[in-house]
Amino acid sequence: MSVVEPERAGERGETLLEISVEASVIGEVRPPGDGRVLVLKDGGRIDIEAVDQDEVYRILEKYGMGG
């Protein structure tokens, strides 16, 4: 996953394709005051709650592979 400025997304995507890496824009970083929202293909919106810990990090901690 990569975070790229919107005005450079096309350029970065082309660069990745040159090395056979497919890329897609999957979201946008918004100001904290906008909240967390999942926007559906049909334009519908679902509020998303923050989680205390990502599940990947929980597993890494459990099995001693965390930093």
Structure in words:
The protein has helices at 9-18, 55-62; strands spanning 37-39, 45-47. The protein is an alpha+beta fold and 67 residues long. It has one domain (6-62). The protein has a two-stranded antiparallel sheet with strand order 1-2. Strand 1 and strand 2 form a beta hairpin. The protein is flat and about 40 Å long.
What kind of sheet is the major sheet?
A: 2 strands, antiparallel
Q: Using DSSP, what is the number of strands?
A: 2
The share of residues in extended strands comes to 5-15%
DSSP helix fraction: 25-40%
Mean pLDDT metric:
87
Structural class: alpha+beta
Fold blueprint:
Blueprint: H1 9-18, E1 37-39, E2 45-47, H2 55-62
Descriptors:
67 residues; alpha+beta; two-stranded antiparallel sheet; 27% helix
Write a brief caption for the model:
The protein is an alpha+beta fold. The chain is about 25% helix and about 10% strand.
